[in-house]
Amino acid sequence: MSARGQSHVVGVALMLGLTVAALGALTAGVGTVLESQAAAADANRVASDLDAALDERAHGYHSGHVRFSEGSLSTVDRTVRVVRNGSVVGEVDAGGLVFESGDRRAAYVAGAVVRGRGGGAWLTEAPSVTGSERNGVVVVGVPRLGADEVGVGGTGGTAVTLETNVTHSRLDLGRGEFAVAIETATPDALARHFREENATVSRQDFDGDGTPSVVARYPGRRQGYLVVHDLALEVGDG
Length: 238
Fold this sequence. Notes:
By secondary structure, the chain is of the alpha+beta class. The protein has helices spanning 3-53, 187-196, and strands spanning 60-76, 79-84, 87-93, 96-101, 104-109, 112-115, 122-125, 129-132, 137-144, 151-176, 178-183, 200-204, 213-217, 222-230, 234-237. It is globular and about 70 Å long.
């Protein structure tokens, strides 16, 4: 074979090698994009499912489902505190549920549903707290999950049943200057919400566990109420 022919064969082989490498990189990139899109779809679906299944306005037995293709759903310790005139007058071990799939996240705490992580997190459902300056009241609603420690995960499709048996109790907290403190791993999302509600917002780690509480202080003296929605949550398979 002539030198020119050898050069031609080498050139073709080189082009084929580069084409295969490019296709491999493209396939890997498409796979990464598809995985990210699937994780985002899962997190959006779970956020909607949590809101529907954990209905603190219900009475008695209620059942719902959380479905995802890949990831994990687990309970976390979260506390809600009500502060009057600088002192804690109400404290509820509310608990929380967190879904994670790759870098995607959805969480439920104190009636709020949060998507995302860190400063990029946002609320899809607001917490169960109402402050009316015109009526001079603050009503802090706290859904208490009351679930045992749970961790459920899998790939290829997972369905989790959330069963609740909801009861309600109300505590008159008297009059004073009130604040509500919600423990959360995504404080920025809750802080933005409470600022929009004309509350003054700060952060405090009450128990030193490294998870901060968003503290929302309402202006003026008001009548305060703490309403605990006890969900008595049980988590089961599909």
